[in-house]
């Protein structure tokens, strides 16, 4: 954990809980505290803040207990509405001009399922067919959802300095804590109410798929749960094949599966996946903290810049 150099709070919020970690400067002091608190039902729904006053009150109480008022904060956004696109932009554009160019193309050459997005670009190290264009990855997220979370944290008493996607936080932890991270990784971030499947190629997120899990799953009979679990694993296998045969045209394949999240049947899911595929699986079973905290640990590894 010596990689962490941030004196700040890190928070991941799902539809049903808030997970946190806090590291103090210098990094040698290590982890100060971590944990999670359940959110009252209906506080968040489908990644949207539904009861702002309730969420503010709960965070305010946590800040008071931990003496975190005005502390720097990084938080993770739900991945349910993120869009990832591989696009081309004119190679002549400077990096500080690229975002403005992309915004002029929204609704023209670039279409998103929501308006007023916050966007980020990641340049790909790919030789373009034409020297006139550069390939980049476009990450887009609804601005209104981001703003709602920022307002909650600000009102509660934090100093918000940045946000991240949960899938990127998990991958960051994997990448920075493994001696030889793979180049072609499928991440299945599996929580009680959702399954987020992301593909990372050369440590860049190039694909994402978000699946909502029926909250009644765990009240079903064991046979029904097994069938539903098999359906989710079938989707993971389908995406593995999609990457190999459609995205890379048979030239590459997934080399590593990474499992994370607070899904109660994560260990069973690992066994079932291993029965169907020969790809190595990393479930962080030998790490210092339970696997459910990997997301907030990875968020803590994000630099302030």
From TrEMBL:
InterPro entries: FtsA/MreB, PilM
Domain of life of the native organism: Bacteria
Record Pfam families: PilM_2
Coiled-coil intervals, chain numbering: none
Protein name: Pilus assembly protein PilM
Record organism: Virgibacillus halodenitrificans
